[in-house]
Amino acid sequence: MKQPGCELCEAEGGRLVLSNEFLRVVLVDDPHFPGFARVIWHDHVREMSDLAAADQQRLMQAVFAVERAQRAVLAPDKVNLASLGNVVAHLHWHVIPRFADDSHFPQPVWGTRLRERSEEALESRRGQLDELRRRIAAEVARVARP
């Protein structure tokens, strides 16, 4: 099921890490938040309660797998999980590694910038993205089977 005009139906929504028959995981191209991922349900549904119980579990297992991969590779101070969908009403979860020195911490990444982040710290985390992609793919493949 695709919805005409829905940006997550018509585009990947980021740099593709993994795709299966149910969902896809992408890394968001945000230079200030390396490792920011989205877990996107393939079919156009609006809410978690639109899914059958087994699909709800499958989706959340994938979200938790992405979180585990981020924690293993990036060692963030915190991981934010969010399913807002106010702008894009297509079921997806944001999985965002957060660091005490990031530009918005402890505020949401969509909030007001509180400080500049050192380019050196950002480059160091960007350098870990290939390993993060591999780890996410392995973790999600392990749990998101039919």
Account of the 3D structure:
With 146 residues, this protein is an alpha+beta fold. The protein has one domain (7-143): HIT family, subunit A (2-Layer Sandwich). Helices cover 34% and strands 18% of the residues. The protein has helices spanning 7-10, 53-74, 119-126, 129-143, and strands spanning 15-19, 23-27, 37-41, 78-82, 92-98. The chain has a five-stranded antiparallel β-sheet with strand order 1-2-3-5-4, with helices on one face. Strand 1 and strand 2 (23-27) form a beta hairpin. Helix 2 packs antiparallel against helix 4. The longest helix is centred in the middle third of the chain and has 22 residues, at 53-74. The protein is globular, with a radius of gyration of 15 Å.
**Dominant shape:** globular
Runs with pLDDT <50, length 5+? none
Q: What structural class do the secondary elements suggest?
A: alpha+beta
- What is the terminal separation in angstroms? 18 Å
Q: Give the CATH architecture.
A: 2-Layer Sandwich
SS summary, helix count: 4
CATH homologous superfamily placement: HIT-like
DSSP summary, beta strand count: 5
Task: Please outline the major beta sheet.
Answer: 5 strands, antiparallel
**Count of domain modules:** 1
